[in-house]
Structures are given as C-alpha cells and as structure tokens.
Amino acid sequence: MVVDELDADEVDRVFHGLADATRRDIVVQVLRREQSVSTLARRYDMSFAAVQKHVAVLERALLVTKQRRGREQIVRGNPDILRRAARLLDAYEQIWHHRARAIEDILSEDREKRTES
C-alpha cells in the first residue's frame, strides 16, 4: 500500500462520516476555524450528546481531531484526509473516463466498418 492511500476500512469510515448532512456541516465549520464541541452544539437543533456522537464518528474517520483545552474539547478539521478521499474519487473518475473512451473507440470502429461496406 502506498502511504498516501486510504485502506478499505479508512475509506468506509470517511464516507460514512460524510454520509450525514450534520457531519458534513461540522466538517465545513471546523475547517473554517477550530471550535469547541459546545460551540458546535449550539448550531444544531439536537442535544449536546448527539453532536458529540457526530464528532466522534468524524474523529474515527480522521476527518476531525479533538484536543482538550481546559474544560473544552476543541475540534479541528483535517484537510489531509479530505484530499486523500478526493484523490480516491479522482481515481474512480479516471476509470470511468477510460471506460467511456473505450466505448467511444468501439463505436468509432463500428462506424468505420459500416462506412467501408
């Protein structure tokens, strides 16, 4: 495995973390600036415990990190994991483009054969 790649379990955790709108919003907020869990909790119409659970999912996915400062847990975004996930999606896109080009080549060959006939 190349060091920069995500393994299968990491990919599952990252996309599970990003599968929920609240978690995606938390990622956006903490990428803009680090925030305490209590500050994040005030943004959402849910309990503090529910926001903590969302943050825990994001932390397991390495999308955010938490650091204790006094009595607060400060949440910070991890853009490196997002870059690595984006590269994975780019690789999937390249596979799709390669397949589309192969289909295009087959259709071109078919048109040439019909033109020659």
Task: Describe this entry's structure for a reader.
There is one protein chain. With 117 residues, this protein is mainly alpha-helical. 69% of the residues lie in helices and 12% in strands. The protein is built from 5 helices and 3 strands, in the order ααβααββα. The chain has a 3-stranded antiparallel beta sheet. The longest helix has 38 residues, at 79-116. The chain is elongated, with a radius of gyration of 21 Å. The model has no long low-confidence stretch (mean pLDDT 89).
Q: Proportion of β residues?
A: 5-15%
Average pLDDT value? 89
Radius of gyration (Å): 21 Å
Largest sheet, spatial ordering of strands: 1-3-2
Q: Whole-Å distance between the termini?
A: 50 Å
Supply the helix-strand structural class. mainly alpha
Counted beta strands: 3
Model regions low in confidence, pLDDT < 50 over at least 5 residues: none
Sheet with the most strands, sense and barrel status: 3 strands, antiparallel
Q: Which sequence of SSEs, written as H and E, runs from N to C?
A: HHEHHEEH
- Helical residue percent? 55-70%
The number of helical segments is 5
Described by the principal axes of the CA atoms, the overall outline is elongated
